[in-house]
Amino acid sequence: MNLKKLIQGLDIVSCEGETNREITSIHYDSRKCQKNSMFIAINGFNTDGHEYISEAIENGATTILYKNEVNKKQSHITYIKVKNSRLAMATLSNRFYDYPSKKMKLIGITGTNGKTTISFLLGEIFKQWGVKLGIIGTLGNYLGETLYKGTHTTPESVDLQQILHQINEEHIPYTVMEVSSHSLELNRVEDTNFDIGIFTNLSQDHLDFHKNFQNYFQAKAKLFHMTDKANIINGDDIYGEKLISLSKGREIPVYSYGIKNNCDFVAKNIKIDNKGAFFTVNIENNSEGFYINIPGIFSIYNALAAIVLAYTEGIPLEITRKALSNLPGVPGRFEMLDTNTPYGIIIDYAHTPAGLENILKTIREFSKGNVIVVFGCGGDRDKGKRPIMGEVAGLYADFMIITSDNPRNEEPLSIIKDIVPGIKKTGKPYKIIEDRKSAIKSALAIGKKDDIILIAGKGHERYQIIQNEIIPFDEKKIINQLLGEGEVDAKDD
Ligand SMILES: CC(=O)N[C@H]1[C@@H](OP(=O)(O)OP(=O)(O)OC[C@H]2O[C@@H](n3ccc(=O)[nH]c3=O)[C@H](O)[C@@H]2O)O[C@H](CO)[C@@H](O)[C@@H]1O[C@H](C)C(=O)N[C@@H](C)C(=O)N[C@H](CCC(=O)O)C(=O)O
Ligand SMILES: Nc1ncnc2c1ncn2[C@@H]1O[C@H](COP(=O)(O)OP(=O)(O)OP(=O)(O)O)[C@@H](O)[C@H]1O
Ligand SMILES: N[C@H](CCC[C@H](N)C(=O)O)C(=O)O
Ligand SMILES: [Mg+2]
User: Fold this and answer.
1) Could you say which residues bind UDP-N-acetyl-alpha-D-muramoyl-L-alanyl-D-glutamate here (predicted)?
2) 408 and 302, same structural domain?
C-alpha cells in the first residue's frame, strides 16, 4: 500500500522523508521486519521498541513510526512521529487490511471467566447451523476447521487485522473473538468494528496490570461502546448490571441473561448432574428446554450467553439445543479424563478465585468421595488472587497440594507462600510440592475410590513458563505416564 495513502488523516506530530513509497507489511517487532516494511516503535513495559530501530532498518524496514525521540536518522528512511504508537498501529493496520471487521459479523466476548468456553459453544452451534465461524482466542485462531496457534488471547492489532483479513479471504461470514482487558487497554482492538458484545462476569484477576478493580472494569466496559448491533450481558453479575445501565444510553438493543435477576432470558427449572445441566428458558412465550453436557451453574451462564446470541441471529432453537447437548468438550475445561482409576481426574483451566470456586463447588455437588485439588498460581501476575484462591480451595476441597503453575520470573516457593495464608484460614489439610509433576504424582497416590482429583490452572497448556523459558509440560501425557497405562484421552491432542 502507498505510504501517503496509509497515513492520510493520521494524527502526525512530524514526518520526515519520502512518503511516496510502497509499504509491504507492518511490524512492531524489529526481528520480524521485511523488505519495504514499516516498523512501529512501541515503548513497552519491558523494553523500548525505539532501541531496535536500526535492527528494523537492517531487516528491510523503510518507514519508522515512532513516539519518542530518534537520534541518527538515515536519509533514505521515512520517519513519522506520532503521539501514541499503539493507537496509530491499530488505525494503520485496520486501513492496511482494508477494514476487514466491517466485512463480517464480529462478536466480541469479554469478562473474567467463560470467554473461551462460550466461543466454543458458539463454534459448535454454528457448525450445526452450517455457517462458517472464525474463532480468535486463547486456544488459537480457528479459520473454519483450521487452527493457527497464537501467542495471545487477543492478538496485537496488526496480527488481529491480518487474521480478520484472512477470514474475509476464506469467505467466513462470522467471527467470534475473546477480547481481553489487556487488549482493550493496549489499543489492540481499537477501530475494530464489533457488531455484538457479550459480557460474562467480572471478578478478581489481572490487578498487576490494571492496578485496581475500577480500571479493570473500565477496560472491559470499552467493548460495549464499540458495538453497533447489540450487547448481550450477564444481568446477575453486579458489573453486568452496571454495563446494562451504561448501555441503555445507546441506541442498540441490550439483552440480559441470568438465573437470579429479572433478565430478558432467565434459566429456570435447573437440574444439574455429574454430566451436565438441564434448564428451561422462556423464549417467545414458550418454555424451551436445553441441556448442556458440561456440569455446573457456571455452564448455564455460558450456555445462556450462547443461546441469546444464537436466538438473536435467527439460528433455529432446535440447532442450538442439539449443539449444546452434544458438545465435543472444550480442551482443558472441565476435562474428565478417561482412566481406569478408582478415582476421577479432572483437568481444568481455573486460574482465578471465581473460576476455582465454581469448579470446586460443582465437583463437590456430585463427588461421592473426597475432593483433592492440585494447583498453583502464575508468576508475574496478580498477587492478590493467591491467598483468595487458597481460601476458596480450602473451603471446597478436602485436601490440597499446592504447587507451581507458570512461575515465570518469580521464585515458585514465594508464590506458594502467598497462597498458604488463605488455606490456613480454613484449617484444611494441605501439602506443598513445588515440582508440578511430583505434585500430580502425589495426588494420584493419595486418591481413593470415588474421590475426584482436580488439577487446576493450566487446562489446555502444554508447557510451563519457568523464568523466560517455555518447557514442555503436558498434564495428560504426564498422568498417562504416571499411571503406566495406555492413552488417557487424547481427544484434543
Ligand atoms: C502486558 C502486556 O500485555 N504486554 C504486551 C506488550 O508488551 P510490552 O509493551 O511490554 O512490550 P516489550 O516487551 O516491552 O517490547 C516493546 C516493543 O519492543 C519490541 N521489540 C522487542 C525486542 C526486540 O528485539 N525487538 C523489538 O522490536 C516488541 O515487539 C514491542 O513492540 O506488547 C507485546 C507486543 O504486542 C506483547 O507481547 C505483550 O504481551 C505479554 C507478553 C503478555 O504476557 N501479555 C499477557 C498478559 C496478555 O496480553 N494476556 C491477555 C489475556 C489475559 C486474560 O486472561 O484475559 C491476552 O490477550 O493474551
Ligand atoms: N461463566 C463462568 N463463570 C465462572 N467461572 C467459569 C465460567 N466459565 C468457565 N469458568 C471457569 O474458568 C476457567 C476458564 O474458562 P475459560 O477458559 O472459558 O475462560 P476465559 O475467560 O477464556 O479465560 P482467559 O481469560 O484465561 O482467556 C474454566 O476452566 C472454569 O474453571
Ligand atoms: N490468560 C491468563 C492465563 C493464566 C493461566 C495460568 N496458567 C497462569 O499462567 O497464570 C493470564 O494471562 O493471566
Ligand atoms: Mg480464554
Assistant:
1) 30, 153-154, 180, 188
2) no
Please tell me the residue having the least CA distance from ligand 2 atom 17.
116
What does pTM read for this prediction? 0.95
The pLDDT, as a whole number, for residue 71 is 85
C-alpha cell at 207: 490487578
Q: Which of 326, 361, 378 is the last residue of a domain?
A: 326
Q: Which tops the pLDDT comparison, 247 or 305?
A: 305
Q: Are residues 107 and 256 in the same domain?
A: yes
Ligand 1 neighbour 30 (Cβ under 6 A): yes
The domain that contains 31 carries what CATH number?
3.40.1390.10
**Residue having the nearest C-alpha atom to atom 34 of ligand 1:** 156
Query: Is the ipTM above a cut-off of 0.90?
Result: yes
Written as nine digits, the cell of 71 is 537520534
**What is the grid cell recorded at 442?**
502425589
Give CA–CA dist 411/380, Å, rounded: 10
162 Cβ inside 6 Å of ligand 2: no
Expressed as residue numbers, the domain containing 172 is 100-326
Task: Determine, yes or no, domain membership for 457.
Answer: yes
* Residue 255 three-state SS: strand
Q: Which ligand is nearest to the CA of 150?
A: 1
Return the CATH number at 186.
3.40.1190.10
Contacts of 382 (CB under 8 A, 6+ apart): 204, 205, 206, 207, 208, 209
Q: Is the CB of 113 under 6 A from ligand 3?
A: no
Give residue-wise pLDDT tens across range 171-180.
Answer: 999 999 999 9
> Do 278 and 397 have their domain in common?
no
* Ligand number, closest to the Cα atom of 113: 2
> What pLDDT, in 10s, does the model give residues 358-398?
999 999 998 999 999 999 999 999 999 999 999 999 999 99
Give the mean pLDDT of 236-248: 93
